Amino acid sequence: MALRAALSNKCGVSSVAVMHMQNPPVNSLSLGFLTEFCIAVEKLEMDKSCRGLIVTSSQPKVFSAGLDIMDMYGKSPEHCAEFWRAVQEMWLKLYTSNMVTIAAINGSSPAGGCLMSLTCDYRIMADNPRYSIGLNETQLGIVAPFWFKDTMINTVGHRTTEMALELGLLYSSSDALKIGLVDQLVPEDQVLATATKTMTKWLAIPDHARQITKSMMRKPTIDKLTSNRETDIQFFVNFITKDSIQKSLGMYLGMLKKRKS
Amino acid sequence: MALRAALSNKCGVSSVAVMHMQNPPVNSLSLGFLTEFCIAVEKLEMDKSCRGLIVTSSQPKVFSAGLDIMDMYGKSPEHCAEFWRAVQEMWLKLYTSNMVTIAAINGSSPAGGCLMSLTCDYRIMADNPRYSIGLNETQLGIVAPFWFKDTMINTVGHRTTEMALELGLLYSSSDALKIGLVDQLVPEDQVLATATKTMTKWLAIPDHARQITKSMMRKPTIDKLTSNRETDIQFFVNFITKDSIQKSLGMYLGMLKKRKS
Amino acid sequence: MALRAALSNKCGVSSVAVMHMQNPPVNSLSLGFLTEFCIAVEKLEMDKSCRGLIVTSSQPKVFSAGLDIMDMYGKSPEHCAEFWRAVQEMWLKLYTSNMVTIAAINGSSPAGGCLMSLTCDYRIMADNPRYSIGLNETQLGIVAPFWFKDTMINTVGHRTTEMALELGLLYSSSDALKIGLVDQLVPEDQVLATATKTMTKWLAIPDHARQITKSMMRKPTIDKLTSNRETDIQFFVNFITKDSIQKSLGMYLGMLKKRKS
Known about the structure:
Strand order of the largest sheet of chain A: 1-2-4-6-8-11
Distance between the termini of chain A: 27 Å
CATH architecture of chain A: Alpha-Beta Complex
Helix content of chain A: 40-55%
Structural class of chain A: alpha/beta
Oligomer: homotrimer
Number of helices of chain A: 10
Largest sheet of chain A: 6 strands, mixed
Radius of gyration of chain A: 18 Å
Low-confidence stretches of chain A: 9-13
Strand content of chain A: 15-25%
Number of domains of chain A: 1
CATH superfamily of chain A: 2-enoyl-CoA Hydratase, Chain A, domain 1
Protein name (chains A, B, C): Enoyl-CoA delta isomerase 1
CATH class of chain A: Alpha Beta
Number of strands of chain A: 11
Keywords (chains A, B, C): Isomerase
């Protein structure tokens, strides 16, 4: 099973869902996982009794390793297009959510994992110098698309984003806190409890006022993708199926395999 | 009298106006007060000898408590529309002012009071942990409109604004300094003197160069409201006259009454 | 000779150019210097073996004193137009460069010198309290144009830019670091060595991914000028040839002469 969504009653009248991502070994965001994830979020979104969503990992040491390279390496243009549409869908579902969304980042969170965190209303990370977070696409020879970039600018500003994306920087948890990439660090065993406590504070705000405010803040960024989805997919497919990019990905996969053995 | 505008000669050739807001008990921004305020600012704007405006409060402990709820509760759509136009006018007058504008924030400054401060070129606040400042609309079940939001983004950036508006956060003076919501803290009895001293520094810059620069910085934000005033008024009236919102305001007023007694 | 461009091999396959600006006494950005500078950058841009550019000064105590006032004072509208086009060209060449660009700021860097620094990917400044940097145009009675402003907003955000430009602030090197106007301070004799070391880190990223990312980050800002170059030139010429502005420049030049003697 790719993920478990546990609904737990929190304050009598309303409930908070805790999504434990479980796609061993490192919660790669594969086409299958993303599809299942989006269906689960959509169900929660339509469940009026569910007002909050906490996203966390049930895998040790990693929140999510990001997009699954196996869905972009040696695949047909059609497969790549379907995959990219699912990545867009995940971002749209989370960034437009009417629920309060909190990322309980209990492990490393590079690339797509960082993006997933950035879509949430609040980010709590385990205070562990071994865990890192960031949009490190350029290190792999690929490029974070404009909506990854926009989400990061909305969080840490233009200059920090420019340097982070050009260099593909991964930040330690304490550096991530310094630049505002995460909102709070707590000891690893308190990440989920802190997320639950924080959720209570957010749920004290009347839903309709909070939702209109959230939508107002994010609408321009969301509109840019929704009015350019097909172009963005075409751009991704053209880019990722290039021989030179496929070669880069192949070398990266080779390096990963070496590291393991 | 709702406000006193004292013109005092500062540097021989030019003068600085000090506006002491006086609408007891808490300088609520009522329709009447806003109308008087806008006329006063317009007069100063047209007086070429007046180059600077300091806005402060003559009421103890409060700069301004923000928009007067009595102008939105149980009132006709026509009244609500007239009120909202006056709020827009206050923002436009201050945010487009050719004068150097300094907020001498000698007390708490929630919601509309915070907005008024945000329109100024510089914000000096009394260093008193009991005083708070912020756009706390969502706490009341209402929503800060897009131009409140834009003014705050221009001051403290996108991420801080998103969290502040979603949660309706009120910041202590020291937290407000940390996030850049105010520029300087001084002991309460030195707020006005510091504002006057700061004004001298700003008036040392040639007016025409400073004014063109200010206009260039603020024009996109101002254009968004001026080209959407009627839509914005209609949105406000539709929202505020809803039964559910009126009920929220009623509950809030009841809570305020209880607190007093 | 206005500048020296030294090409030095760094990592076997690729080379880094170090541009030592040499327009005594203070590297004023005159029409002649800017023309020569743009030709040199364009040559490097077209040289595929050159992947990085370090800009520094061979003059003591100053990186660049900014635009040469002698090209705007007492000159014909045609000359002013030609001069402004050269300033635009310098900004466009640097801000759109496919090379990694690093400013090695080994001296003061007001106005146009600050702008030049802001176009680079990374800014290293000498840790010397006597050196200052900033867009101080309003202090001279003139105005930084919209693309100077946009470049600064992209670097330090809206609020800091608004105050800096309205007051024409010059920051000490340590204050510049605090607000993010420069990225790093090092002892003066290590500025160039640190730039070279930093360059190696940037060149470790695959060029195509870094270049696409850089272009994505800067395109909206660049498009604003490229689609408005003639209007911007006309605005500058109309402004700078005004009697009142010419008088301001004359007074400033008089003050500079007095200071020297």
